[in-house]
Design brief:
CATH topology of the domain at 124-212: TolA/TonB C-terminal domain
Helix content: 25-40%
CATH class of the domain at 124-212: Alpha Beta
Shape: elongated
Order of helices and strands: HEHEEHEEEE
Structural class: alpha+beta
């Protein structure tokens, strides 16, 4: 080997040492780091949770039997009393009667008859027939001139005083003769008034016919 080559090798030796140290240190760091990671990962995988089942406590030992316990004989057996069951009485049969008892008739009293109406006396003319109250002089002149004749029936109302208080004429005679008849009867007729059941004078009615004829 020449001197020049030796000089080159001696100059590069420190660099080679440094480079070798760096490479070896990196490899050692990689190896240490990888191994630590694998160990931690495997430890984590192996670490599994599990339930811890508690063991029940051991049973307590029975207490020791008492010493010198007197022996008590069991009580004598008493049989239960006999219960005598009374026999149920036979059911009572109720026989329904189909006959219907007679029903008493209901008697309703008849209501009393109404009292009869009080009897009243009728009015009576004091002069008898009313025809006697008329004369030839009472003939109305107009009726004579017209040759009027006929019968006038008067329905009179007689007051308690016996006088005529109302007159209603009817019949076949003329109106002139009817008016004359009511006017004369009201003025001239006098009656014995009617009486009620107690004997008191009361109002009543009276009817009579008056005939008008012209003398020949």
């Amino acid at each position: 080997m020449s001197y020049a080559q030796r000089k080159d090798l001696s100059g590069n030796r420190p660099m080679s040492i440094i480079f070798t140290v760096i490479v070896v240190g990196g490899l050692m760091y990689a190896i240490v780091t990888g191994l630590a990671y694998n160990v931690i990962k495997k430890s984590v995988q192996d670490l599994k949770t599990f339930d811890v089942e508690e063991q029940p406590p051991p049973p307590e030992p029975p207490p020791p039997p008492p010493k010198d316990m007197p022996k008590v004989p069991p009580p004598p057996m008493t049989p239960p009393p006999l219960v005598r069951m009374n026999a149920e009485p036979p059911p009572i049969q109720v026989q329904e009667s189909t006959t219907i008892p007679p029903v008493a008739p209901v008697i309703v009293p008849r209501p009393p008859a109404p009292p009869p109406p009080p009897r009243q006396s009728q009015a009576r003319s004091l002069t008898g027939s009313l025809q006697g109250l008329f004369s030839a002089d009472d003939y109305p002149p107009s009726a004579l001139d017209n040759n009027e004749q006929g019968t006038v029936t008067v329905s009179l109302t007689i007051g308690p005083s016996g006088r005529v208080t109302g007159c209603s004429p009817s019949g076949s005679a003329s109106s002139t003769l009817k008016s004359a008849t009511c006017r004369l009867v009201t003025a001239r007729a006098r009656f014995s008034p009617a009486q009620d059941a107690s004997g008191n004078p009361t109002t009543s009615s009276y009817t009579q016919s008056i005939v008008w004829r012209i003398a020949e």
